[in-house]
Structure formats: C-alpha cells, structure tokens
Amino acid sequence: MAFIDSIKNEILNKNIKERHCRKAFLAGLVRGLGSLYEGENGLGLEIKASNEQTAMYITSAVRTLFNYDIREVSVSEDRLNGKDKFYLSIIGERVTEILSDLEILTESDGELVVNLKFYGKLTEKECCLRSFIKGLFVAVGNCTVPDNSESSTGYHLELNFSHYTPALETSEKLAQFNVLTKITRRRESFIVYIKSAEEIKDFLAFLPAPVSVLKLTDLIINRELSNNSNRQKNCDLGNVNKQVEAAAKHIDAINKIIETIGLESLKPDLRETAIARVENSEETLSELSERLNVTKSCLNHRLRKLVAIANEL
To answer: Is residue 214 domain-resident?
Structure first.
C-alpha cells in the first residue's frame, strides 16, 4: 500500500466523537471533492470520491449530520489508473441548507455565493480546525516518500487548491502550529507543499495521524541506515580500487627493473620486497607488511623507492 493511502485510511478509520468536529471534517471533504451544478431541480452538489471508503464515509456523515440519504450514486473507472471513482449527488432543496451549514455557501447582497474563505465559525475550535484540515487532506492531499528504486523521488507532501485565498489561509493556519509550508502555482492550481521529512512528520502529528508518524519515522531511520551502508560500501570500494591501482604501479615498476638491470642489482631489503610484491599481488599493504615482518610505513618507503628506481631507468 502506498504511504498516502495508509495515511488516508488511518484518518478515515478513526472515529470522530464530537458532532462539531465531524461537521468540520465533512466540510473539508466537500470543499475538496465537491462541485456545484445547475440541474432540472435547481442547485445540485456532486462529490467525487477516489475510493469506496471515502464515499461510504461521506454518505454516512451526511445521513448522521443532516438526516439526508444520498441515493444518487454512480461508479466509473478512472482511465488514468484503472481504479473506480464514486460520484455522489445531492439535489433538491437540501443542497442549500447543507452547504450553508458547512459554510461553503454564504449570503452576499441577498444572494447565495460560494464562500472562498475556508476558515470561519466552523473551525474556531482547535479540534475542529484539525478535523477540517484532515478532511481537506483526504480530499486534495498527496504524500510521496522515497522507495528503493533508482528513480525514487524525495519526501513531498501537498494540498491542491483551485484558488489562492484558501491555499494562503491554510498555510497560515498551519504556521500557527509550527507546521511550515510553501505555496507554488501548478497550471491552474495553487499547491501548499512540504519537502522536508521532519516537517511532514510535524504535519501528520498536527492532524493527528500517530500511526503514520511512526511509519514515517521508521522509514526515515531505515533509509538513513541504508544510505550509511551504501556510503560505507562506496568508501570500501574506493579503497579497494586505490589498492589495486597502487599494486599495479608497484608491479609495473618491479617488472621494468627486472627487464633492465635485474633484481640482483637491488639492495637485499628492496629485492626481498620486490619479490614479495610480485608473488603476492593480491595482498593488501597490511598483509604484505606482516608477511615481510616490517611496519606498513617501512613497506611504503621500500615500494616508493622501487618506483623511483624504475622511473630513472
């Protein structure tokens, strides 16, 4: 299961006890998933849910909070990912009542208009504010974390808004709780986003989604351990390559000496070192120094001397 799916499942599966918080949560969902239309019977609301769990939650919440049964339900397959999309429709006189109670519609100059200010009386209490943003995140949120593939992206969490005002408001509300976000524009949308693993943890803790916080913490730790292991492997491989290159340089020098002046022309200690190096080409300097019963520093000095002699020939 993708990490974003596990976050949303945790949120939807958690029982919200207080009625005012349930209403705020539903308002966040409808803000993100709903769209208004003019039908034969007047104003209508269509809610597009990305999965059955979200659709069932909305249906249950509307029934509990407003004593309204959503009977207009249709399912269609999303061509992009092959998954089912659920379309819920609320039509008739109750639309205005429900949307006004959720502060999505407001009266202006005697007319009902869409309220672009997301945060009002419904979110005055901190618990309701958290519930509202939870609903928003389920509706328009996404979160990606690195996996083990080479093409893996980094940490990224975002909420997608169709207008700048609610994006700015949401960013400012989160900042009050030390959850720092940035805003960017992507085509016709405004994106409130976070790209730091620790700040994503702060956001999840704010909701709160404690199980997801623990999962993300575990992922961060495992990834850091993996990165450290890879760095150590790369370091070890680099050392091996250096050792191989150095051994080849030493052996080339010794072979040149053999072909020109012969090993007999060398002092006994250098001759002994040259023979040992050629006969044990795969040994490290530490292993070779033990074989010759000399210090590694002494061995390095002898090998440098052999290379210097070869360079003079």
So the answer is: no
Indicate whether 171 and 235 sit together in one domain.
Answer: no
Burial of 283 per CB tally in 10 Å (0-12, 13-18, 19+):
middle
For residue 220, tell me if it sits in a domain: no
293 by Cβ neighbours in 10 Å (0-12 / 13-18 / 19+) ranks as: exposed
Sorting pLDDT into bands at 50, 70 and 90, what band is 108? confident
What pLDDT, on a 0 to 100 scale, did the predictor assign at position 241? Answer: 62
What's the pTM value of the predicted model, to 2 decimals? 0.70
Domain of 104 in residue numbering reads as 3-208
Is 155 inside any structural domain?
yes
Q: Determine the Cα–Cα distance for residues 230 and 223; give it in Å rounded to an integer.
A: 10
Ranges assigned E (strand) in 163-247 = 182-186, 189-194
Residues 94 and 46 in one domain: yes
For the CA atoms of 68, 35, 120, 169, the dihedral, rounded to the nearest 10 degrees, stands at 150
pLDDT tens-digit series, residues 56-89: 999 999 999 999 888 888 888 766 666 788 999 8
- The whole-angstrom separation of Cα 252 and Cα 239 is 20
Q: Would you state the structure tokens that stand for residue 73, as one six-digit string?
A: 């339900």
- What is the residue-wise DSSP string for 5-55? HHHHHHHHHS---SHHHHHHHHHHHHHHHEEEEEETTEEEEEEEESSHHHH
On whether the CB atoms of residues 129 and 119 are closer than 8 A, the answer is yes
Please state the φ and ψ torsions of residue 227, each to the nearest 5 degrees.
Answer: -65, -40
The CA distance from 207 to 199, in Å, is 13
Q: Which phi and psi angles does 240 have, rounded to 5°?
A: -65, -45
Tell me, yes or no, whether 203 and 231 share the same domain: no
End-of-domain residue from the set 142, 174, 208: 208
Number of structural domains the chain divides into? 2
pLDDT digits (tens, 9 = 90+) for 284-300: 778 888 888 888 888 88
